[in-house]
Amino acid sequence: MEDNRIILLYNERNENAITETKDKYGKLVRKVSYGILRNDEDTEECENTTYLNTWNSIPPAKPASLCAYICAIARNTAINLLRKAGRHKAENIFDELEEIIGDHNNPQELIEEAMLVPHINKYLKSIKSRNRQIFTMRYYFEMSVEAIGDCFGLSANAVYVQLKRTREELRSYLKENGIDV
Hints:
mainly alpha; Rna Polymerase Sigma Factor, Chain: A; Arc Repressor Mutant, subunit A; 9 helices; globular
C-alpha cells in the first residue's frame, strides 16, 4: 500500500493503518530497533510502542516521508528504552563527518562546530529532498546504510556512495562560503 494511503488511514482513525504500517515497515522498524537495543524482547516492545506512538501522532503530524517518520519514532523509542534501562551507548558514526567538522577535543572546536550548523542547514535545504533525507537519516537518526537503503529501495552501497558525494559537496559548499574545513 502507498504511504499516502496509509497516512489517510491514520487520519481517518482506521485501525488498519497499524496493520498496513506493520506489513510495509515492520522489518525496517525491527532492524532500527534491534540495531540500538540488541535484544529481541526489547525490540518487540519497541516495535509495538512505535506503532502506538505513530497512531497517537498522526494526526496532527503530516509526515512527508512515512518511512523516515516511523524510523525516527522507532529510533527515539529504542533510545528511551535504553535510557530507562541505564545502558545507552550511542554508535559513533560521526567519524565519517570528522574530516568536515573536526573532532570534539576542545571547547574552541565545539564553538566552531556550533557556528557551522546554520551553514550546514542552508546547504541541506539547497539539495534534493531524497539526498537531504538520506543525509539526515544517517547523521541525525544514526540509521545504518542498510536501513536507509531499505527505506528508499537502494543497496547499501548506493546509499554509501550518495552519502560520500553529499559530504564532498558539503565540504565544497563550506569552502565556497568562507568556512575553512
